[in-house]
Amino acid sequence: MPELAQRTAEVVDLGQRRKTFEEQLRTDLRFTADVHTVSSPTTSNKAQDLLAIGDEVGADQQVMLLQGVLPELFCCRGISEGSSAFVLALHYALANQRGAPLDGDQIFAIRRGLNFVRENLFLSFDRSLDFIDMLSDSKLVVDPPETAILTDVFTESSTDESAS
Fold this sequence. Notes:
Layout: H1 2-36, H2 46-52, H3 56-74, H4 81-95, H5 104-119, H6 125-137, H7 146-163
Helix pairs in contact: 1-3, 1-5, 2-3, 3-4, 4-5, 4-6, 5-6
């Protein structure tokens, strides 16, 4: 009987630790979405607001702050495949900009995706594809740079085979 009580206590402890972890992750995501992209309870976007008044440098600073938080969010990739896929796509979308500023549509797509992930931590991979497509539709390149090289290699090899 003492073993049963000990195992029950361990399960309860694991449940509490998971709940604490989920709360911390939600807080981190809220921090990411709220501080770096959303400036007020009316969800007006800091970066979009700064872009609207012509402050491209200020808008870019907000995006750089977001980039600083992404590695921490990536460390939480075990929470769900969907949130992990979105964070990774967002990382590559920002990295592939190579310092070029984002436009209003791109910032909006990022904000919308982050807000959805924040509210739906256990996002399915299929549902995350909708938000990754939204990033792509805003002309952000969400694939790693190596993808282009692999595409070229496979295209060349298939062309060589068909020529034979």
